[in-house]
Structures are given as C-alpha cells and as structure tokens.
Amino acid sequence: MGSNSFHLMIAREQDGSLQILHKEKEQVRLAQGLSPEGYLCDDAIARGLECLRNFGQRFSDLCETRVRLVATHTLRVAKNRDKFLKAALKVIPYPIEVISGHEEARLIYAGIAQSQVLDKHNLVIDIGGGSTEVIIGNKNQPVKLSSLRCGCVSYNERFFADGSLSLSAFRAAQAAADKQFSSLSKEYFEGRWDLVLGSSGSVKAICEALQEYFQDETVTLSRLRELKLKLVQAGHVDKLEFANIERKRIPLVPAGLAILISFFRRLEIDKLTPTPAALREGVLYELAQIDLFQDIRHRTVDSIAQLYHVDTKHGAKVRDSAMALFDSVADSWQLRPHARLLAYAAMLHEIGIHINSRAHHKHGGYIIAHSDLPGFSQDLQQDLALLIGSQHKKPQFDTINSLPDGRREVLVKLLCLLRLAILVNLGRVARSLRLSCSVLGENELALIPEQSARVELLLKDLKREKKHMAQLGLQLRLDSELSTEDAED
C-alpha cells in the first residue's frame, strides 16, 4: 500500500519458487491527500478503502490463503492513520502492517535478491511516492538501509503542482533531494559499486522515456540531464506524450527524474540498471517462507525441472558428460565464464517432453523463452532457450546466425558440446558412452570415441553431427583409426 499506488499480488508456492497467479494495481494517490500538518483527508481515505474493498474480492473465497497487508511512507507519517486502519478492518479482515523505512528498504533488497543475481558491492535506489530507499548490499545481504523523505508524489506536489516544467522547478526539486542524500552515512559516498540498481515505477517510467527519446534504456547522468531538457522544452506535463508510460504516471516523471539526477550527482554514479523486483516480491517470498538460495538461478532451474517433471537423473548424466567435454576445451576456447549456462541447458534439455516427445526440443525452447526465470537476464534466458531449442535434429540456423559474432561463436561451441553429451546418453543406458575431444583450432574439434560394442551407432550419429556443425562454421574431426572416411578427408 504505497503513497501513489496500491498493489495486489496473488501467488502460489511451487517447488520452492513462486508462481504469480494474478497482479494488479490501482493509483490511489494517498500522498496527495496528506496535508502539510500530516493528516490524511477524507477523500484519500475513501479512495484507499474502496481499493482495498475491490482487492478483497479477488481472493476472499480462496482456501488456505496467507495474507499480508503492508503499508509504507504515507501511512507511516500520517497522524490520523488509526482512522484509516480501523476503517480498513471493516472492509478487509486482515490487519495492516505499517512498516518502518528501514524495514521497507530491507524488503526491497530481499525482493531483488530473490529475483536476480547480485554482485559483491551493490547499491539500490527505490523511488516511491513519499520516500526513497537507498540500500547497500553485499551479494544477497543488505548491509546498510536508509529511507529518505523524498518521493515522486510528494515532490510533484511541492515543485510541479501546476504542471509547469521549468529549469527553476527542477533546480528547486534537486536542491531538496540533495539535502536528503547528503544525510546518508559516509559508506554511501565511499563505494565503488559493482552493480547499481533502480527499482519502482518511477525508475521504470524514466527508462521508458529514455527508450523513447534515445532508443535504449541506458541510464547515465548525461542521459538524465538530456531528458530533463526535453521535458523543460515541452513546458508543461500536459504536453508530454509517452507511448509506453501510463497517462496517470506521466505527471510524476519530472519529480522522479529530479530525485534520480540528485542521486547520480551526490553519490557519483556512473550507470544504473533497472530491476523489475522490489518490495512486493520481498513480502511474497517471506510470506511463502522460501529460503534465499546463494545462487538464484540454481533455484530457478530446480523449480522449473520439478514443474515440468524432468528426469533429473538423466539430466544429471547429460550434464556430467557435457562438463567433461567442456573441461577439455574450455581454456583453449575461453569458455570458462559460460560453464553454468551449459550445465543448465543439459539439466533442462528434456523439459519439452512434458508437452510432446516428438518435437520436445522445440517445446523446450519455447517454454524457456516464455517463462519467468528469476536470476536470468534477458540475454541469458534467450541463450538457454536457443541451446535447448537447437539440441536435436537441425539447429535453429537463422536465429543463431543472427546473433552478434562473439556471442554467436560461444553459443555454437556450447551447442556442439550439449549435442555431443546428448548423443553419448541416447536412450536410457546405464553407462554413458565415453567420448573425448581436443581442440585442433579456433573452430575445429577432434572427437575420439571409446572402443566398444556400441561405437558404430555413435559414429553414425557423429557423422550426422559433423554436417550440422559445419553449417555453423565448426569443423568436427573423427578419430582416424575408427573412421576410414574421415581419414581420407
């Protein structure tokens, strides 16, 4: 229950992960109804109660439901909040938890840590309607939590109330934000951050505006200043038009932008990356009592494997074969940073069998491409989908060849290793066939199958594999003692 919008999320715990079943938000504008003396007006209270009444109808008939209602800055500071809280109990029969600024910051960081891989030194900013949370974290653990009294709704009321967009209004808003950021402890001004993340609707809206004006979402101080000048040139919020920003959100963009510019200037930030997760995810994961994995991607892979009933024993065999081949070539081909991607692809390569065994690779690729995969970046998710979708029969030549050169070369080599690992485990054999390999050149690989009664079948498969890989620019050479044809080649 934020200062600008109330959010509802309904989820279920599934194999150690959360599946979002329903989510919606309603702009209640609670902070706009807060007087300078700190009292909520009757209209704001009525809007909030009506929203809770509507939300309650979404889950009132569910059985075995855990419910948590969390309120942030506006109800935190409202002197007459008890009036709202008592009235709310008659509308929705669950107590409202008004959390402190530090608890809000902790939950924000927990939600982000549950949703993506964090680095050693992280800095997070969340610009809300009435407050801005700034968090320092070490990997999954927050180490410094701060909540500042500046937000997009409160600053919109103070500096952009009439909708005019002038340099003087921006300067006043930035000066006020500067005072807030200057109150942070010295740790915030000493860090060299591995990762700077921005969450909340304000950061998302600013990124959408940058995308529209500059064709990408790169968030730097120079870009933010350029965006400010474009808003000033428009002159008034009524003249602002953004295709991907909700109309109700547009008037709050200038205030959020002023706060973000101040954040960049005061803390000497080089670049910020938006993150979709925040407070709501933190509340949900704690409500579901899901522990925080050290590697979120590992949890995601385990969860999706269980969801689609993957044969994890067979997946582990393919993974072990793939990693044995990987170790033979990783240093020569400089593939070490991509070890986990190959391991994940091997573990999940049969995910599509749950839908149809005949084209399971295509179904598997589709599932991965269109699933919610916490911890996976957009590119990493696309690469995983491409490996799984190209593991069998003809690879997705057009998609692979359209990738940038460096990324394409890595994917082709990982795909080769994955397909070879699948070949030595075809069927459900008790013991994998042994296949060793060695690098002959940047795009050439020697394959040496073991001598066994089953090797003839493997040789046929490998000859077929040679043709596929050749179309991707990777030459496979079979051991000369086992293949006369390849010796002649």
From TrEMBL:
Name one matching Pfam family: Ppx-GppA_III
The signal peptide, as residue positions, is: none
Q: Does the keyword Zinc apply?
A: no
Species lineage? Bacteria, Pseudomonadati, Pseudomonadota, Gammaproteobacteria, Alteromonadales
SUPFAM superfamilies, per the entry: Actin-like ATPase domain, HD-domain/PDEase-like
Per the database record, which ranges form the Ppx/GppA phosphatase C-terminal domain? 296-465
| Keywords assigned | Hydrolase
Q: Ranges for the Ppx/GppA phosphatase N-terminal domain?
A: 10-288
The family database entries (CDD domains) matched by this protein are listed as: ASKHA_NBD_EcPPX-GppA-like
InterPro entries for this protein: ATPase_NBD, GppA/Ppx_hydrolase, Ppx_GppA_C, Ppx_GppA_N, PyroPPase_GppA_Ppx
Whether Nucleotidyltransferase counts among this entry's keywords is: no
Protein name per UniProt:
Ppx/GppA family phosphatase
